[in-house]
Design a protein that fits this description.
The protein is an alpha+beta fold. It has helices at residues 22-30, 36-46, 51-57, 72-84, 101-106, 114-118, 121-127, 137-141, 161-170, and strands spanning 13-16, 62-67, 87-91, 128-131, 152-156, 177-183. A six-stranded mixed beta sheet has the order 2-5-1-6-3-4, sandwiched between helices. The longest helix has 13 residues, at 72-84.
Length: 184
């Protein structure tokens, strides 16, 4: 079965299997400004293969799926929303983030692709409602961080999403999170 970027429907929930932040952590590490424990954690997350997760997802009614890579979460989510002709409400506080990523962004560290990815911010506002509990600009900036070996982003029915999360955690995806929902 082929999982494409299209097929999301209002009421579906969005799940993300890995935390964001590898772009900023690697950029800061190249300048020797990232803590070793942060970089080690990022590398450990990058080494987790998406294959077991993608194989497990085939057992469920997954609506759309993509991996999160160089375009960042915002770029890949917009592609899914355009293909599905719908919008999403994203709960920023539920997006898993690697330790140190927000702190480094707050200090002005960004990947070289970050600014290019951020050029879609105006388009993002047409497709994504951000639900945020604080006004931290860094938390919003993580959406544009390009990922190396990022996780899978997919939509699934509310009826089964908790079962999917449980199975993925059993497979070792400890950071899998429900980050939002599809809306009209």
């Amino acid at each position: 079965r082929l999982l494409t970027k299209a097929g999301l429907q209002p009421g579906d929930v969005l799940l993300l299997t890995k935390p964001l932040g590898s772009g900023v952590l690697l950029a800061a590490d190249m300048r020797a400004h990232a803590k070793g424990s942060w970089v080690k954690s990022a590398i450990e997350n990058m080494r987790v293969s998406n294959q077991p997760a993608s194989e497990a997802l085939l057992n469920y009614p997954i609506k759309a799926c993509t991996d999160v890579t160089g375009f960042g979460l915002a770029g890949h989510l917009i592609e899914m929303l355009q293909a599905s002709e719908c919008r999403a409400r994203l709960k920023l506080s539920s997006v898993p983030i690697l330790d140190g990523a927000l702190a480094l962004m707050g200090q002005g560290y960004f990947s070289t692709l970050h600014e290019q990815n951020k050029q879609i911010e105006h388009k993002m506002l047409s497709y994504i409602e951000l639900e945020t509990s604080n006004s931290s600009q860094c938390a919003k900036e993580i959406l544009f961080d390009p990922q190396t070996a990022g996780g899978l982003l997919f939509g699934v029915s509310k009826v089964v999403y908790q079962t999917v999360i449980t199975e993925l955690r059993t497979l070792g995806y400890s950071n899998v999170s429900m980050i939002g929902e599809i809306i009209d």
